[in-house]
Amino acid sequence: MKREEARKMAEALVAQMTIEEAAGQLSYQAPAIPRLGIPAYNWWNEALHGVARAGMATMFPQAIGLGAAFDPKLVEELGDVAATEGRAKYNAAFRHGDHDIYKGLTFWSPNINIFRDPRWGRGQETFGEDPLLTAETGCAYVRGLQGKGDTMKAAACAKHFAVHSGPESLRHEFNAEASEKDLAETYLPAFEALVKEAKVESVMGAYNRTNGEPCCASSYLMGKLRNEWGFEGHFVSDCWAIRDFHEGHHVTENAIQSAAMAVNAGCDLNCGCSYCNLMIAINIGLVKEETVRESAVKLFTTRYMLDILGEGSEYDQIPYSVVECDAHQAKADEATRKACVLLKNDGLLPLNTDQIKTLGVIGPNADSRRALMGNYHGSASRYITVQEGLQDALQGKVRVLCAEGCHLYNDKMSNLAQENDDRMSEAIEVAENSDAVVLVVGLDETIEGEQGDTGNPYGSDDKLSLLLPPSQQRLLDNVLKVGKPTVIVLLAGSAIDLAEAGQKANAILMGWYPGARGGKVIADLLLGKASPSGKLPVTFYYNDQLQEMPAFTDYSMRGRTYRYFAGKPLYPFGYGLTYGDVHVTAARAVKQDGKLLVDVTVRNDGTVDTEDVVQLYCQNEGSENAPLNPRLCAFQRVLFPAQREIRVTIPVDEKRFLVVNDQGQRVEEGTVVLYANVGQPDERTRELTGHEAVRVQ
Predict the structure, then answer these.
(1) Would residue 238 show up in a list of annotated catalytic residues for this protein?
(2) Closest Cα partner for 109 from 165, 64, 175, 160?
């Protein structure tokens, strides 16, 4: 149903409600209104990387892994998978009269905040540190979720609006200060793209204040959203964020004033309980009835666009059998395969099973289901860890010896152990008896994540450093001392500095949180059944470089992300090896039909067919307002046959060549220079790959 028609129906319906009934609909737990034939509806549902928190569902890699895939087409297909399974689960729940939380079709995803600081625990929920990659990937997921038909398949939500990326411990009271330049250049472009290009149905406000105003009642942000960008959907608060107005930010005196402030500013839906005070606010003159009715109209417009009021739609026939079906699992596997990033390889990978008779699989994440999932995850009917994936793939061919080696972060596994590292000797023994070792280490949602989601030994779910916990550092050191060929598999949602262990290991594969069955795909990659092809969506810094960065609470971009970092990173944004040898040999720009097309010649000198990501970066030479380093302006994932040279044509939106001045205006400035590569045009990428970026002619 088109928005115009849906809104007219919503207006007619809300006009029949008492003001008490209309106000009640502004809660995420919207009650039924039997006399009008309106069933109860719970607006709160999640689908960050597959339908979450609602029982069984196909689980994709964590969002940061989807960013690493550099493949918006795939992400759109994953959005459709999530919407299809969401419809199937909604249909089943509705038939059983179940209108509870996590049963609806309004998914509070994707998270398009910028992963500006590697310590942020929720950075794993984002698509990375780059505004363009975030916008392209976010738009794709929204298109997939919402569908292309007359009926919206599911409603997506762009969150958290805006200037939100930690610290978690301060989010309920924190004021994020951002310049007009940083707002326009970094923090707002993805939101603008999702509103204007993908037509996202809802936007969620952040907990914090931005430049003094609570994000869920910010005149500045609401003005951008409604007036400049033309957003027509509904606005929802983050959960219990309106309560923070008086308890954390102290911009109001009580819950009644907070509710009034939010709804008057344009916050249509309250995740929380603050809007139970709306009738009091109306009765004492703080809120007008028509304000409440307008918000109710927006909410019912969404429900009509979903066709879940009235006659229904073809989506009502989606059966429960689509949940975790083979086609959906195959699409999740494809995402995992494209997400994994090969950071180092001296030739050990792919593992040669003709020469390996015994393989040691060691580490706290080797057989960890939690390390597959990330946060905001669903449940799966089957999980395949890295250990299980290797065991299955090598059964009858190679003996697999296993050892956990250490706890994820505690010094001992058993509370009754007399000494620390009580599983270390077993890990060393396994390494000594193996021809090669796969060391699976990293983090999980108990170490990095959202404040309050799980217990955390390090603080409020942000990381204090980029190093692994000491227990894992000791494990790495002891196993590597054995001297066997060793590949480290990292399962984490953010940058990790392996320190000396990273230098000693023969290979390093970043698997992120790869999804419920991600261990099978990682095993396939390690054994050469497919080539890694993911690229880093964030910069991997050396741990010591944190001291050079602005404070975590400083939201200026100075010194942050690949665009403004002046040092040499551990691994750069856009970097990732393959089992091939792909490099750009020439690039030429041509104007055609008013568009700029970049014709890139790429050669794979390797012996393995592999996908890779051709990346274009632009710099405005002579501009005072351009970022410090060239910035991503276009990219394309392509399959490159071995020992072949092919040409790739990549369209570039010329607005990417504009720079942002201190007033937040996009202007033409300097001489635009383009570079083509399968990574950045920087010194560190050249060191790691042995190939130079090509300047576009």
Answers:
(1) yes
(2) 160
